[in-house]
């Protein structure tokens, strides 16, 4: 189905590497003409977000935007909200993340009075873990607590211990802007399906456009209970190499990742990723690889 004109114009603007002063002067007017859903930002603070990749992805996506976008590891939704597909299958192994998105699709309004306070944070973390133990992880209450913990916890991390408990510490931000009303996402998510499956269980169509950013090949991989090791990296790459439709796979540009993707016949392009989280203060750009198949 043809995208509305304002979507086409928005995507076209993103493909420009440099905009003239005249073009920039028209940008606010263009965005004022968009419906609220088209201006929606990712609702979560997400470590390793891929919003910076949108200018790299648009030239590949724009000619194929009639296809369904599939993200096996949808994370913070930066890519889906940047590309604005009409139809999407958005999956993640983290059930709490998917519950939050499903609640937003229903028109979620949180009733939690959030506080940027350490003792309040740890009390709410206990509440959240209690809900998980009680089998209530798919509730509105769990979604509200997940959002609060995400906004208030350290660096937007989403981490669970071996017992399946959320264990991210207090973030110590000076000021946090909390959102209560998420109803703007309801219309935007109307044709987006959110699933919580192992990526190989996804019901793919041969023409699907797949964008995949698995947990990167780095030391920290405890994104979900069980982690994501080298076997999972290989399995992901092999699975995607067999898809007949367009595929873009991104990862940290480690030697073994590069060797794996080349061996499977992907076309490789390299990028410099902004490093927003660092344990030693090093914020130099990190090398990343974009592996491409079935695209010009």
How would you explain this protein's 3D organization?
- The protein is of the alpha/beta class and 296 residues long.
- It has helices at residues 5-14, 21-32, 54-61, 78-83, 95-105, 118-133, 140-152, 184-188, 230-241, 255-263; strands spanning 69-71, 88-91, 192-195, 209-212, 247-252, 267-273, 286-293.
- It has a seven-stranded mixed sheet, with helices on both faces.
- The protein is globular, with a radius of gyration of 19 Å.
- The two termini are 22 Å apart.
Write the layout of secondary structure elements.
Layout: H1 5-14, H2 21-32, H3 54-61, E1 69-71, H4 78-83, E2 88-91, H5 95-105, H6 118-133, H7 140-152, H8 184-188, E3 192-195, E4 209-212, H9 230-241, E5 247-252, H10 255-263, E6 267-273, E7 286-293
Helix pairs in contact: 5-7, 6-7
Outline:
This protein has 296 residues and is of the alpha/beta class.
Number of helix segments? 10
Strand order across the biggest sheet?
3-2-1-4-5-7-6
Major sheet details: 7 strands, mixed
Calculate the mean pLDDT score and round it: 86
What is the tally of beta strands? 7
Radius of gyration, CA atoms, in whole angstroms: 19 Å
- Helical residue percent? 25-40%
Helix-strand topology string: HHHEHEHHHHEEHEHEE
Proportion of residues in extended strands: 5-15%
List descriptors.
296 residues, alpha/beta, 10 helices, 12% strand
């Amino acid at each position: 189905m043809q995208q509305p004109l304002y979507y086409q114009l928005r995507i076209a603007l993103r493909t420009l590497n440099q905009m003239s002063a005249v073009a920039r002067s028209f940008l606010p007017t263009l965005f004022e003409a968009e419906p609220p859903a088209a201006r929606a930002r990712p609702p979560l603070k997400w470590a390793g977000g891929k919003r910076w990749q949108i200018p790299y992805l648009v030239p590949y996506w724009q000619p194929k935007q009639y296809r369904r976008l599939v993200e096996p590891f949808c994370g913070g939704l930066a890519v889906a909200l940047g590309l604005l597909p009409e139809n999407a299958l958005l999956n993640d192994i983290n059930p709490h993340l998917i519950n939050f998105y499903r609640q937003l699709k229903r028109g979620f309004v949180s009733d939690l009075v959030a506080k940027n306070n350490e003792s309040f944070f740890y009390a709410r973390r206990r509440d959240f873990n209690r809900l998980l133990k009680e089998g209530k992880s798919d509730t509105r209450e769990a979604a509200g607590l997940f959002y609060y913990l995400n906004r208030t916890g350290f660096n937007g991390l989403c981490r669970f211990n071996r017992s399946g408990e959320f264990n991210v510490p207090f973030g110590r931000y000076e000021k946090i802007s909390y959102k209560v009303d998420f109803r703007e996402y309801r219309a935007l998510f109307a044709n987006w399906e959110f699933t919580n499956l192992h990526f190989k269980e996804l019901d793919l169509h041969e023409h699907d456009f797949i964008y995949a950013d698995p947990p990167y090949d780095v030391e920290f991989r405890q994104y979900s209970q069980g982690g994501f090791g080298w076997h999972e990296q290989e399995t992901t790459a092999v699975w995607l190499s067999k898809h007949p439709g367009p595929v873009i796979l991104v990862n940290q540009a480690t030697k073994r990742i590069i060797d794996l993707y080349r061996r499977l016949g992907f076309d490789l392009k390299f990028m410099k990723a902004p490093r927003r989280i660092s344990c030693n203060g090093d914020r130099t750009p990190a090398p990343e690889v974009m592996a491409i198949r079935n695209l010009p």
